[in-house]
Amino acid sequence: MRKFRTESRIKKISETIRNRQFSLRVVIENVHDPHNVSAVFRTCDAVGVPKVSLIYTVEEFPKISKVTSASANKWIETEKFNSIQEGIDSLHKEGFKVYASYLDKNAINLYDLDLTGKVALVFGNEHRGISEEMKEQADGLFYIPMYGMIQSLNISVAAAVTLYEAQRQRKVKGMYDKSELTEEEINKLIDDWCEK
């Protein structure tokens, strides 16, 4: 399909792929509202997170439309898990450290957390937060410091704050300057994306 291979499109796709942070993953656990899921997808695309892991053990995964996601779901790969253990095991097998967002006395301040390694960040349900099992299975917990009367953020806002801190740390370390992929892998992805 040659019509999808304009020079400007290939250039944009190439730049986007080269900036993807394959060592950074987002995990969504039982998030119910499709607008929240879509907002997380848009932030992932903006920051360069290539893949979102979806763990749905209680809720049904919401239907995401192109309108609500601004087509970000087209550029974000997803994988679905039916159990927390399955999801955590898969992430660990890939070499990820799993950190879940949760306000707890043992949680690490987001701004003290090193987000330049191979890190998966978990965000839970709008009302319940992360599950007890996720608290136990995660390698660590982190919290976003807040100085107001209310000590909670919408899940999409919490994800955005966290991911932009990850972006900041990775920019400082030069991780957006050199792709994590080989040229062969980049070219294959360019071909795949040109067909989307």
TrEMBL record:
It catalyses: guanosine(18) in tRNA + S-adenosyl-L-methionine = 2'-O-methylguanosine(18) in tRNA + S-adenosyl-L-homocysteine + H(+). Belongs to the class IV-like SAM-binding methyltransferase superfamily. RNA methyltransferase TrmH family. GO terms for molecular function: tRNA (guanine(18)-2'-O)-methyltransferase activity; tRNA binding. CDD domains: SpoU-like_TrmH. S-adenosyl-L-methionine binds at S101, I144, L153. InterPro entries: Alpha/beta_knot_MTases, SpoU_MeTrfase, TrmH, tRNA_m1G_MTases_N. GO terms for biological process: tRNA guanine ribose methylation. Residues 24-164 form the tRNA/rRNA methyltransferase SpoU type domain. This is tRNA (guanosine(18)-2'-O)-methyltransferase. It comes from the Bacteria. Catalyzes the 2'-O methylation of guanosine at position 18 in tRNA. The keyword Lipoprotein does not apply. Its EC number is 2.1.1.34. Gene3D superfamilies: 3.40.1280.10. Keywords: Methyltransferase, RNA-binding, S-adenosyl-L-methionine, Transferase, tRNA processing, tRNA-binding. It comes from Melioribacter roseus (strain DSM 23840 / JCM 17771 / VKM B-2668 / P3M-2). The gene is trmH.
